Amino acid sequence: MPLFRRPKRWASLVAGLALTSILLTACGENSPSILDPAGPIARSESNVFWIILIIAAVVFVGVEGVLIYSTIRFRERPDSPTPPQIHGNTTVELIWTIIPAVVLLAVLSVTIKGIFDVATPPANSNKTIEVTAYGHQWWWEFYYPEYKMTTADTLVIPPHTNVHVKLYSNNVIHSFWVPALTGKTDVIPGHDNEKWFSADTADKTYVGICAEYCGTQHANMRFDVKVTHDNNDFLSWAQLQQQAAAVPAPGSLEAKGQEVFKNQCTTCHGIVGVSQSTPYLQDPNPAGRCDDPTKDNGCLIGPNLTHFGSRHLIAGGVLDYNQQDCNPGGDLSNCNLAKWISDPQKVKPGNDMSVNVDKSDLPALVAYLESLK
Ligand code: HEC
Ligand SMILES: [Cu+2]
């Protein structure tokens, strides 16, 4: 009897599977990938992945090969004699104990090296910046203790610099992940984690993700990591962020927007120079953190908006901030900022922003927020 009764069917099944996997690979074009590392930490992690994958592939092909070969070659035929019994054969026992032990030792050593790599500053630089990342439901806040400035949704870093991130949450567990730059680390209330990473390409933006299910809008808790052109570029950005908010000209549309902001938004949002004097009142040490975000001016429940006009994402990346479509004097129907302010619950159901903005106040608010460069 032939081994495969319908060789053609088998051939089309195998070809179909191969084609699907090629097609599925193509899906990843623009999505973040651990296979395209852009910094030493991610590279070390991706090395561990590749080495283990290759070892596993060799073992898989070897074992399955021998299995398939012996199934075919030594299959039972009419009148075949009982095969020799090798149970308890010392040589065989030794071989199949020693080989796996050696293979697992190799995997262990690669893994241990990886663990040390990610726990220490990447060696490619002697510069370091400190960042505190707060996981909120559902957006990321980034505080730079050395610069006393805070931003949301986009973490800006200089290239070739060790970034030391302290990870805090006072709500639920999140997970900080930038596939191209660093693997996942949980952000756990009451248990402060930290991590290192570094980017070696300038002028690039990488996608960051919350990798732990943290509630209904978990998937809209995205952030960007923007790597500046060089350190000076970063410093001039930082200098801008450290300043108090732009002051609108008296009588302007922006000034009207600021009034609306003061009346309706300051319970949840801070703007330095308008509703608070410093972006963050407490240093990021556990004792100084407030656990009731609505009670402390320093950790309000919404993102700090002092320089919102210089950002490009809205509310955990649920919308892009398309400023070119936001002309406060004209049509705002395609303006994502106007969409967000007029109905945040429609855009991101369940999020913590609830407002009731009068339609006639929208252009002023949009103009004001846009002026906050
Ligand atoms: C009850 C609290 C609350 C009030 C009041 C509030 N917001 Fe918000 N706002 C939030 C929260 C929380 C977020 C983040 C939501 C998320 O991403 O899940 C947010 C996000 C935003 C963002 C996006 C910021 C960013 O960096 O992504 C803007 C802009 C904004 N709010 C504007 C306003 C304006 C203008 C008002 C007043 C008309 C206002 N908000 C009133 C809580 C509030
Ligand atoms: Cu999260």
UniProtKB/TrEMBL annotation:
Q: Which InterPro entries has this protein been placed in? A: CcO_II, CcO_II-like_C, Copper_CuA, Cupredoxin, Cyt_c-like_dom, Cyt_c-like_dom_sf, Cyt_c_oxidase_su2, Cyt_c_oxidase_su2_TM_dom
Catalytic reaction equation(s): 4 Fe(II)-[cytochrome c] + O2 + 8 H(+)(in) = 4 Fe(III)-[cytochrome c] + 2 H2O + 4 H(+)(out)
Q: How does the protein's chain sit in the membrane according to the entry? A: Multi-pass membrane protein
Start and end of every Cytochrome oxidase subunit II copper A binding domain?
A: 126-240
Q: Top enzyme class of this protein?
A: translocase
Q: List membrane-spanning regions.
A: 48-72, 93-116
Judging by the UniProt lineage, the source's domain of life is Bacteria
- As given in the record, the signal peptide range reads 1-26
Principal location class: membrane
Keyword annotations of the record: Copper, Electron transport, Heme, Iron, Membrane, Metal-binding, Respiratory chain, Signal, Translocase, Transmembrane, Transmembrane helix, Transport
Query: Which residue range or ranges hold the Cytochrome c domain?
Result: 252-373
Q: Where in the cell is it found?
A: Cell membrane; Membrane
What would be one Pfam family of this protein? Answer: Cytochrom_C
Q: What is its EC number?
A: 7.1.1.9
Q: Which cofactor does it need?
A: Cu cation
Cofactor: bound how, per the entry note?
Binds a copper A center.
Domain Cytochrome oxidase subunit II transmembrane region profile as annotated: residue spans: 26-122
Q: Which family does it belong to?
A: Belongs to the cytochrome c oxidase subunit 2 family.
Record's function text: Subunits I and II form the functional core of the enzyme complex. Electrons originating in cytochrome c are transferred via heme a and Cu(A) to the binuclear center formed by heme a3 and Cu(B).
The record's section on PANTHER family has:
CYTOCHROME C OXIDASE SUBUNIT 2, CYTOCHROME C OXIDASE, SUBUNIT II
NCBIfam families annotated for this entry? CoxB
Give the protein's recorded name.
Cytochrome c oxidase subunit 2
Q: Which organism is it from?
A: Ktedonobacter robiniae
